[in-house]
Structures are given as structure tokens and as C-alpha cells.
């Protein structure tokens, strides 16, 4: 069975009536949102906070009640995907371009479950290029500054034009040889003028749900 589907559906078992729920973005959490839609139809009482326009659209189609991020101070639980996860529960996110809103939502979540298939659980972060969201103004200069941290930033494109995020920004996919110190790199990247946010999530996940090829699911707790 598909590891993404297994993990996505398993995470929903932690959802309880009355919760305000952060709804992540991507093809793994898609399965969580689909399951939530089914449960809402059967009477589950939750309110979702979407992390992207695509998740907002999906949740609306499924009849999941939503609440705007601006109107709340705290989220009970967020379920989201990731591109890489290491044994310290540090993540690379943003493969789908939603990292900024995802990080904002995660930052006010009491608890956060990350759903992945087993290919994404890695000893060291960095094989997946690190997404960094930047303002459009002077992106060439920002690229040079980011490269001094030891990577090759590539401007993400879509249909031969720069990819534009839900927030109107660009994304660099940054190729580091290996990321040894995610905490330090997260800080250094965010200190560069022009950088809005980067896809390193540190101290923002407490449970990892891993869907495996053999149809089993591992649940890792911090
Ligand atoms: O911007 C996208 C998000 O960070 C996703 O959660 C991440 O890229 C994982 O996506 P998927 O589950 O589709 O592999």
C-alpha cells in the first residue's frame, strides 16, 4: 500500500472533537484531509486552518469548516508533510512551495504531526534541495548572499517562468552538500535581507508518522 496514504490516514486518529487543526500542504497530508472530510460528514466537529491556497480549496470542497489564521492565537494540532526528516525531528519542507505559511501555522501549534513515507526518513538532511522563499526584488543579489553559506541556489521555475508562492514571492532550491547544523543554518539564512523564510523546521515537530512499503506504520515520538 502507498506509504503516503497510510501515514496520512493514520495521523487523523489523533484528531478530537472541538480541535482547531492546522492543515498542511502536499500529496501526503492530502490523505489526512480526505479522511477528515469523511469524518466531518459523520459529525466530527473541527475547524481547519489551511497552509496554502490549494489546501484551502480542497478543504472547502470537502466541507471542512475553516477559520482564518489571523483570527486565532493557538492551534491544537497540525498535520503536515515533509520532504526530509532526520532522527532529531528536524525537517526540510517547501517542496510544494508552501513553507512560509506552514511554518507560521506550526509556530502556534501546541502539537505537530508530520506524515511521510519511509523514503523521507534520512540520517542527514540535505539531499533534498532546501527551499528558501525570497522577495522578488533583487533576487540575483540575494542568490549571491545565500551561496556564501555553501550552496548553489537555483531559482524555482514553472512553465519557464519563476514560480511564485501564495505570498507573491520567489523560491530558491538550495543544493548543500550536507546540512550538519540545521539550527545554525536556519538562523543564518533568515538573517540575509531578502530572505523571507526557509524550509528548515527545527523544534516544530513532535510526532512523525512513517508509512512503509510493507503496509506497516511507524510512529516516532520526540
Ligand atoms: O511546500 C510543501 C510542503 O512543505 C509539503 O508538505 C512537502 O513538500 C511534502 O509534500 P509531499 O507530501 O507532497 O511529498
From TrEMBL:
<comment type="function">
    <text>Catalyzes the reversible conversion of ribose-5-phosphate to ribulose 5-phosphate.</text>
</comment>
<feature type="binding site">
    <location>
        <position position="120"/>
    </location>
    <ligand>
        <name>substrate</name>
    </ligand>
</feature>
<dbReference type="GO" id="GO:0009052">
    <property type="term" value="P:pentose-phosphate shunt, non-oxidative branch"/>
</dbReference>
<dbReference type="InterPro" id="IPR020672">
    <property type="entry name" value="Ribose5P_isomerase_typA_subgr"/>
</dbReference>
<keyword id="KW-0413">Isomerase</keyword>
<feature type="active site" description="Proton acceptor">
    <location>
        <position position="102"/>
    </location>
</feature>
<comment type="pathway">
    <text>Carbohydrate degradation; pentose phosphate pathway; D-ribose 5-phosphate from D-ribulose 5-phosphate (non-oxidative stage): step 1/1.</text>
</comment>
<protein>
    <recommendedName>
        <fullName>Ribose-5-phosphate isomerase A</fullName>
        <ecNumber>5.3.1.6</ecNumber>
    </recommendedName>
</protein>
<dbReference type="InterPro" id="IPR037171">
    <property type="entry name" value="NagB/RpiA_transferase-like"/>
</dbReference>
<dbReference type="Pfam" id="PF06026">
    <property type="entry name" value="Rib_5-P_isom_A"/>
</dbReference>
<dbReference type="InterPro" id="IPR004788">
    <property type="entry name" value="Ribose5P_isomerase_type_A"/>
</dbReference>
<comment type="similarity">
    <text>Belongs to the ribose 5-phosphate isomerase family.</text>
</comment>
<dbReference type="InterPro" id="IPR050262">
    <property type="entry name" value="Ribose-5P_isomerase"/>
</dbReference>
<feature type="binding site">
    <location>
        <begin position="80"/>
        <end position="83"/>
    </location>
    <ligand>
        <name>substrate</name>
    </ligand>
</feature>
<feature type="binding site">
    <location>
        <begin position="93"/>
        <end position="96"/>
    </location>
    <ligand>
        <name>substrate</name>
    </ligand>
</feature>
<comment type="subunit">
    <text>Homodimer.</text>
</comment>
<feature type="binding site">
    <location>
        <begin position="25"/>
        <end position="28"/>
    </location>
    <ligand>
        <name>substrate</name>
    </ligand>
</feature>
<dbReference type="GO" id="GO:0004751">
    <property type="term" value="F:ribose-5-phosphate isomerase activity"/>
</dbReference>
